[in-house]
Amino acid sequence: MNKLNFTEDQQDCLQEIINVAMGQASDQLARYLDTFVYLKVPSIEQVSSKYLSDTINSEAQSVAVVSQGFFGYEGIRGEALLMYQPKDSDRLADLLGYEPDELSVEEQIIDLSSILTTTFLNVFASQINNQMSYSAPRLLFSSNSENKTSSQSSISEHIEHQSFNWDVALKVKITYQVTDYSFNCDMVLLIPESAIINIAAVIDRILEEY
Amino acid sequence: MSLSVLICDDSNMARKQVLRILPEALADNVQLATNGAEALEVLNSQNIDVLFLDLTMPVVDGVGVLQGIKEAGITVKVFVISADIQPEMQTKVLDLGAKAFLRKPVQLDVLNSHLEQHGLL
Prior knowledge:
- The structure holds two protein chains of two kinds.
- In chain A, strands 1, 2, 3, 4, 5, 6, 7 and 8 form an eight-stranded antiparallel sheet that branches.
- Chain A has seven helices and eight strands, in the order αββαββαααββαββα.
- The two termini of chain A are 26 Å apart.
- In chain A, a hairpin with a 3-residue loop joins strand 7 (168-178) and strand 8 (182-190).
- Chain A has one domain (8-204): 3-Layer(aba) Sandwich (Chemotaxis protein chec), CATH 3.40.1550.
- Chain A has helices at 8-33, 49-58, 86-89, 92-96, 105-127, 155-160, 193-208; strands spanning 37-39, 43-48, 64-71, 77-84, 133-134, 138-141, 168-178, 182-190.
- Chain B is of the alpha/beta class.
- Chain B has one domain: Response regulator (Rossmann fold, 3-Layer(aba) Sandwich).
- Chain B has helices at 12-21, 24-27, 36-45, 62-72, 87-95, 108-117; strands at residues 4-8, 29-33, 50-53, 77-82, 100-103.
- A five-stranded parallel sheet of chain B has the order 2-1-3-4-5, sandwiched between helices.
- In chain B, helix 3 (36-45) runs parallel beside helix 4.
- The interface between A and B is medium-sized, with 22 and 21 residues.
């Protein structure tokens, strides 16, 4: 049996922990943008490394991705990828209320992603009695991006060079709809199998309380 | 006579979280709903005294339930328990008639304080 196949109860518990984390991340986003964020039920699925490569490679245009590593206790660690579609990343300046040339699009994407990732993971961690630290966020582009510069890694290269092996990742599909704009971003958590097993063990401890 | 309670949340764990901290006076006659449509069905067919309501749910969300309650003129004390903690959402549900907004995961002392404030403890 694949150790990453959660039971129905584990999936429900994980979904609820993610809901709470998403709620607080959205609240931070709403404060940052000084607007209201409509929340939808997030979908959570496990995706294979092949799926992720195929998804990234199938994009005809560039996809902006911000990657940030996270490290907690009990071997819980991984890499969070926030993936934006081009139509959304181009509108971020309007969304963030920056003046033209105030910040580059790249800096804006990193700003926004850092808020969403760290708020989400801090709340996620606190619910499983853990605490996260983070590496600096990095902006990546898909390998076929016309916007890529020599200093930017491609997503595929970056994923290949992770310090851990992973076969399955947790994909949390988040849709943030802001009052005057809407944009979608997928949060993909690349988590090594050992860490997912640890998360499942923590979830089991929580479930035992009920 | 014990009060009738309805807990509406799409998460089984979240429903249990509320159930396990309910005071005795509210724990005898509890029904569960997994989305807003189910909750409205119960509210339209039975007398429910207290509703614990999540907001972000499939089919009909919590705001839809509050609007349904208002339109149908149903009398029920609604306590919203949600992860959507934005101030604007809290104001919105209170304007729609909810007695209180409690953030998830709900804590025993917070729940009791709100229940006491509304004469349910």
